[in-house]
Amino acid sequence: MHRPTLAHTFAERLPDMVAEVVPTDFPNPQVAVLNEPLAAELGIETEWLRTAEGTAWLAGSSGGHATAYAGHQFGQFVPLLGDGRALLLGDIDGREIQLKGSGRTPFSRPGSDGRGAIGPMLREHLVSEFMHAVGIPTTRSLAVVATGEHVIRQQGRVPGGILVRVATSHLRVGSVQYAATQSPALVEEVIRAAGFDTPLELLNTVVDRQLGLVAQWMRIGFVHGVMNTDNTALSGETIDYGPCAFTEDFDLSAVFSSIDTAGRYAFGNQPSIIAWNLARLAEAMFPLLDLDAAREVFASIQSRWDELWARQQESGPEVPLFLPRNRMLQDALNAAEAGGDYAPYRALLAAVTDPYNPEAGPEWMTRPEESGPFTTYCGT
């Protein structure tokens, strides 16, 4: 058994957009959930991950890098955000491994502990693996680690946790926006690092990816909850499940996130918001775009949040029997977080990762929940 060998492609290609982060020591890290099939895909030995050395590695013992990015948060531009509680360990087999909730970084905001609570990390693990199971592009979760310490959150003192996230790339619209505040040359470097030859190629591809992605969200009632430009991945993968939830009533006004007080990211606003985010991407690359081509793309982005609605209404794949329904998921998280009882969580995880199989879970898990007020929190 041995430690996986990771490359550091992001840091090597974009050295001006990373900051080195030293390891954080945790008192007693334990693997709470391990995605063994994903570990096998990545060529990482599951037996080693369950050893003390492997668990420490999952908790960030080898250190890594935090990445810089900007972003529009609820419509307001912030020129430097960056990974305030995330650590990019490196990449393997063409996929990046990043920790979420592993401690402070040079980009941490004042007052932030950089830690994660176990509940939101378990939420992201389960919902992202459900999205993968139904064929929606998404970041994935390799593991959730209980850190052995406690953090202070809305509900008081709760167990700490780390999500081990796997993505094709953690470059996002906010990455291009940050580069644009620095120099056109850095924008060009980001474009190449994202795998594109020209800004127009990147823009057209990301527009197609994101329109398709949000159309798939709408089909299953997924409400992302925090569609800031720094949470819009160039890869077209769903990223950052902090305050996400599901609406089964096709309620266009549905809002669940505690921080979305004005309903900017309500369920029915998601098509127009993704168009708005894509327009911000075009703006960030504007100096590098041919003027006529840029005008066409701007017009295309606006005329297409209609194309997205049309895509949403097309006949899609079979509707899954099992969804991470809001209250049943929260009940499972409460049992794990408050009492260390993971049985309800594991039962729900088994059902939603085999969502078309009626034998994957009990019948009651397939029943729609009553509509009504429900609030989610981002975990910070």
Biggest sheet, in brief? 5 strands, antiparallel
Structural class: alpha+beta
Helices and strands, in order, run as: HEEHHHEEEEEHEEHHHEEHHHHH
Give the proportion of residues in helices.
25-40%
The count of DSSP E runs of length 2 or more, i.e. the number of strands, is: 11
- What is Rg? 20 Å
Strand content: 15-25%
How would you sum up the global shape? globular
Count of separate DSSP helical elements: 13
- What's the overall average pLDDT, rounded? 92
* Terminal CA distance: 35 Å
Runs with pLDDT <50, length 5+?
A: none
Biggest sheet, strands in spatial order?
A: 2-8-9-7-6
Structure notes:
The structure is a single chain. This protein is α+β, with helices and mostly antiparallel strands and 380 residues long. The chain has a domain at 9-167. Helices cover 37% and strands 16% of the residues. The protein contains 13 helices and eleven strands. The strands form four sheets. The protein has a five-stranded antiparallel β-sheet. The protein has a two-stranded antiparallel ribbon with strand order 1-3. Helix 6 (173-182) runs parallel beside helix 9, helix 8 (199-220) packs antiparallel against helix 9 and helix 9 packs antiparallel against helix 10 (291-304).
Question: What structural keywords apply?
Answer:
380 residues, alpha+beta, five-stranded antiparallel β-sheet, two-stranded antiparallel ribbon, 13 helices, 11 strands, 37% helix, 16% strand, ATP-binding
